[in-house]
Amino acid sequence: MLKELVKGLGTTLRYMFKRPVTVQYPEVKRPVRERFRGRHELKRFANGQERCIGCALCAAACPADAILVIPAENDPANPRSPGERYAAVYEINMLRCIFCGYCEDACPTNAIVLEHQYELSFYDRRAAIYTKEMLLVPPDKGHGEPPPILQQLNRQPSPPAKIDL
Amino acid sequence: MPDVTLTIDGVQVTVPAGTNIVDAARQAGIAIPVFCYHPRLKPVGMCRMCLVEVGTPKIDPATRQPVLDAHGQPVIAMMPKLQTACTTPVSPGMVVKTTTEQVKFAQRGILEFLLTSHPLDCPVCDKGGECPLQNLTMGWGPAVSRFDYNDKVHFEKPVKLGDLIYLDRERCILCGRCVRFQDEIADDPVLGFDNRGRNWMIISKSDPPFNSKFSGNTTDICPVGALTSSDFRFKARVWELQSKPVVCTLCPVGCNLTLDMRYDRLMRVMPRENAAVNDIWICDKGRYGHRFIETDRLTTPLVRRDGKLVPVSWDEALEVVADQLTIIRARHGGSALAGLAGPQLSNEDLYLFQKLLRELGSENIDTGIGGPAALPPDEIGGWLAPGPGTDLSKLGAGTVALVVGADPEEEAPLYLLRLRGIAQRGGKLIVAGLRPTKLDRSATKVVRYQPAGELAFVHGLLKAALEAGAKPAALDRVQGWNDLRRALGQTKLEDLAAACGLPVAELETLAKDFLAAEQSLIVYGWEARSAGPALAEALAALMLLSGRAGTANNGIIALLPGGNSRGAIEMGVRPDAGPGYAPRKQRGLDANGIWEAAQAGKVRAIWLAGVDPAAKLPAARAALAAAEFVVVQDLFLTASAELADVVLPAASVAEREGTYTNAERRVQRSRQACAPVGEARPDWQIIAAVAQTLAMVPIGGGRNGPIPVTSEAWEYVVAADVAAEIAAKAPGYAGITYAALAATGTGGNWGRQYDDAIYYDGTSYANSEGVGLVLPALTAKGAALTFTGAVTRFADDRPLLLLEQVLAYDGDRHLRGSKLQGLVPAGHVVISADDAAKLNIHSGDRVRLTSATGELVLPARVVADLPSGIILLPAGLADVEAAAIETGPRTRVSLAKVVMG
């Protein structure tokens, strides 16, 4: 009886001198793995144009029906994206999203990328719908790089994105 | 034709001689990939995608017998090179191989070659998802291209081929389907090839560009995304669309449409296959003209308070209507009420409309808006419509189609394709009219009688038919036939021939052809109707003389304005007869009578359902202003609605169910495609709700008796309940229930059956709603048919004959919000070159038309092919106040050039 007690307290004593595994979130944030699938971002080309061409293949691939794309025609004088089409409306319902990454896989221009942001909480359901303005990266952060997994697969952008590059 | 048995990939298949290998393989369930071949077009073998190995039995030159091998089987001599399956007709004993290495090598090669000049911008392309090039590349093509992307041919994209169609030359594979459709089927040869080699491209040769009423069909049959519709450009991806079956209500053809919806928004309109109505085609009015369902719509009921229309709830609005109708009926009797309904409403709406007004004791019911050019309801086209089993797409040799005074391209565009098809398949198409129309080009015989000579022409045909020995037994019970017969007996054929300006022999030949045909059809339109009922009656007599009236493929098709104009007549929305042509004891007022009576204070309440008379008729404006109470139920806040006391928002054709009766008396069912806009309700529901409210009004009817509307008689939950009552009560409509309509087959073998999607994707949609039912012929009871012999009279004797010209793209309020708005011409008057030369008038000059009742100043449009003495006035255009000068359906006018300054 006494022997077991001492053994247990000994374990406690031993752990007092080890480094704690607890992370003091939110003061401290644990780094995520490189291929972690967090909140989506819509990337841009180096010249600032949107990579998204509004093809809605992400919405078609989405198993949770979380994505809404309403396309429109680019103004030829001031195109938002390469080619004739762009996404006038792009919305992801984060409550529906299951973060499977199929949208990333379906995207012919590597526009949508599941990045490392995982702090997604909302006070109401409407707030869970991320609009294009929220998803699109700022123009100065010209992301030309496909995500690592796509780099490994040596994926090339599809022709509409190629034409104007 | 004898059948031919051949072997395709080891499968024995028997097909009619003359079938090509692609179609034969389809029957065996084997898909041969094609791009340029289309079963509705002549094969050309341009794309080379259908290359197959073909062999025929070896024939011994000495004995002319097949050479047999050791097993007694015929020796097959394979052709040294691959053959195009679409241009090779089958022959007995033929052996076709579609999956050999040689064939696969060729198919891969053709696809790789086609893709060398294709931009592969599928994610951007509107065709992506229903693209035969995508499908065939996945099924037959190489996975990778050896061609460097940067070496591909690049064109500026897109090019506008017309207002409605965009061309992307990079995507075009130059199969020529669009060019051939325009040449062969639409008879608008406005597309062509330009340049050669890598700069080979499709161009429009017409001015204005792509001047065709059928241009939208080229986007359907284009096997790539080269031709796309400006209406659907980047609106949605095709896999997101839900296809809802509706019936087009813009003209009396009743084309089967598919409204492709994304959620509740209309994305595009596509044809729905129905071989007996529109095959796989629709006209541009149907395809582009449905934007009205989401443009300028009324969303709440409005009631006039302090001179202004203010939004109210349905209950309030219905109460106002019921109270006012009750009060006016109590004070002035049922005959102080009147109602006009539009010809685009469904049978259910129209039936309930007349039911309610007649229950309230009013016979003042009519279709349309009246006006000087209004004609009595057309009964001939109903009594003598083609019988059950009619299918114009099957008619060919042995058929005589007589078209009198009609312009099908403008009045009912799809009839142009169908009548042209009869001529192409070997039938006789006789086109008679005062002026040239596009159908003339397809006709086997064009008859151009003198101005106002049409009655003499048809009487001449009748006289010739009687002289040729036709037995008028079927006419004996027709009232008025004896008068017509006596009149014919007193004239000589020579006199009639002289009166219409045709040789006697020609009349005799035409009459003989008509009587001798296996099937005979008569089509007449506005120009014929404007001559007065006597012309249609003479045509009816001719039809009855043939002895085949009312049987399948024999009968009269009357082209009336509006999608359900035949339904309106058959539902009894007319002053003189109830549903099913049953005459009423007491005749009510027609539209013009209502306008007069309202101004005289005899009609005090007017109910307008889907009509806008105030936009066109000064008399109607005065009448609506004079009336005590005006209810308007409509889609939009029209000019008439602005004058109303209560405005009720109605649901459009896309937002409700209903059945529609087309010009051939085919009843078809239309489905609901989306939720009604705002608080709009289907017309039948509005009428039923008014009736229910009327039944609950507490006050009695005074000396005019209590209101006979009972709540039990007006309990309709769904549109099918109304249809069931129509089937029970309207003579001729027995058995026309929704269940019966749904069970009428799929409308053809096109659709998306088995492997067809691989190569005919995006062209048409399978018909899930049935092909509709043709009502049984009414001719068995021919006694009710009455010939009045009435002809259009003129107020005075001015030199020129003014005809209203019906245009497909006119001031129709249903065109609002559509791309067709740009194609609606400005108000003008069409003058023949001869008359213009006499008065020194050039196109664009302003001219003054003067008739007995008034004058009208409009720009002139001088055309070369109009006979002199005739003036055409497109009365449907918004800025043409035709009522100012018209004295009747036809008017005599004088013309003068307006000199400025």
UniProtKB/TrEMBL annotation, chain A:
Organism this protein belongs to: Chloroflexus islandicus
Ranges of residues in domain 4Fe-4S ferredoxin-type: 43-72, 88-117
Keywords linked to the UniProt accession: 4Fe-4S, Cell membrane, Iron, Iron-sulfur, Membrane, Metal-binding, NAD, Quinone, Translocase, Ubiquinone
Pfam families the record matches: Fer4_7
Lineage: Bacteria, Bacillati, Chloroflexota, Chloroflexia, Chloroflexales
Cofactor, free-text remark: Binds 2 [4Fe-4S] clusters per subunit.
Name of the protein described by the UniProt record: NADH-quinone oxidoreductase subunit I
Amino-acid positions noted as binding [4Fe-4S] cluster 1 in the UniProt annotation, renumbered to this chain: C52, C55, C58, C107
Record's bilayer topology term: Peripheral membrane protein
